[in-house]
Specification:
With about 160 residues, this protein is an alpha+beta fold. It is built from 5 helices and 5 strands.
Length: about 160
Amino acid sequence: MKKNKNLILAVLFILGLYSCSPKITNQPYSGEVNFLYKEAQGTIAVKSTGYGKSQLEAVTDAQKNAFKVLLFKGLPGTELNVPLIDNENEATSKHSTYLNKLFDEGYYKTFMMSSTESSNLIKMEGTKGTKKISVDVKINYNSLRKDLEQNQLIRKFGY
């Protein structure tokens, strides 16, 4: 009986450790981000699609998707055609504290100049309550790049 109790405690302890691990690592995101326009030097507007159980969750997902694509994938046809961060896996393990702050704590919003819903909330067929929305997001990528440099996620431009 004591062995079973110790085994159960060990399993609960391991599950507890797992639930405290950083959430950003290997978190899936949609690549549905398209360039809209460049208004001023250092800013870019994109249309991003997000998914969620509620409108707020879907809008937040769309906003985060826009930033994740700029950071880890790049946006073809723009001056940000290559990702700001070269290696997503390395960055998520080495800089998990910063990336958790950026995405989980909403720090990305400090680089977001505006966010406007550009489509109606659509219920996805064949899903259990998942909804989809498109959002136009204007991003100050100069400030984002400078912050990434200061936090040593990327090298200074030109060095």
